[in-house]
Design goal:
The chain is α+β, with helices and mostly antiparallel strands. The protein has a 4-stranded antiparallel beta sheet with strand order 1-2-3-4, with no helix packed on it.
Length: 204
């Protein structure tokens, strides 16, 4: 972890992990974090105007590791988890870019549609002293600007004022393109880190 402590994980089910130490007790899960909108009934007419092979390719890409994020999975106060709130909150619509923007604002102490939910998991986010450390730890650098001061957000976005769901085919295609670029870049980062780790293990 950024604080130099080991955060060991025990697998307790197919996608659930557990940690307990002086850092605290955490239940985590890995989830596909990128919305594709491909199965949304209300977007059926929009999605149908994009070649099916392009949509299918996009959906497959979101299932790769670059589109997967680990979140705290335990309910607190019988309220929604982070991943649950992302999906049900109409100002987020399960979008990872908007979730990252909410996390950026959380570290700044600025309100967002996910602030209260993120704050329930304060002990988890406190393990990362800053937004930069959180981003670097989970290899999300391609979701933010070079100086970490802003989030790379796909169209449409109007500062959480209205629905973030694409309103027409042009917005949907632009959303797909921005998101595809992010996932491919993150896949590369993860692959490079894995190769570096394997190389270091071999040399040692």
């Amino acid at each position: 972890m950024p604080n130099g402590r080991m955060f060991s994980l025990t697998k307790i089910s197919n996608n659930r992990l557990h940690h307990k130490s002086e850092l605290g007790e955490f239940f985590l899960s890995s989830d596909r974090a990128v919305a594709t909108f491909s199965k949304w009934k209300r977007l059926e007419n929009i999605v149908s105007m994009v070649p099916s092979e392009k949509v299918d390719s996009f959906v497959r890409l979101t299932d790769t590791i670059g589109g997967i994020v680990i979140w705290p999975s335990n309910q607190i106060g019988n309220k929604l988890t982070i991943n649950g709130e992302r999906g049900f909150n109409r100002k987020i619509a399960d979008r990872l870019d908007l979730t990252v923007e909410c996390i950026r604002r959380y570290y700044l102490g600025v309100s967002s549609p996910l602030y209260d939910t993120l704050n329930r998991y304060k002990d988890f986010f406190d393990m990362f002293d800053s937004f930069k450390e959180y981003i670097d730890f989970f290899l999300l650098q391609d979701a933010v600007s070079e100086d970490y001061s802003s989030t790379v957000i796909a169209i449409p976005f109007d500062n959480f004022s209205s629905s973030p769901v694409p309103h027409d085919v042009d917005e949907y295609v632009k959303y797909m393109e921005t998101t595809t670029k992010f996932i491919i870049s993150r896949n590369t980062r993860i692959s490079d880190l894995h190769c570096e780790s394997e190389s270091n293990n071999f040399l040692s």
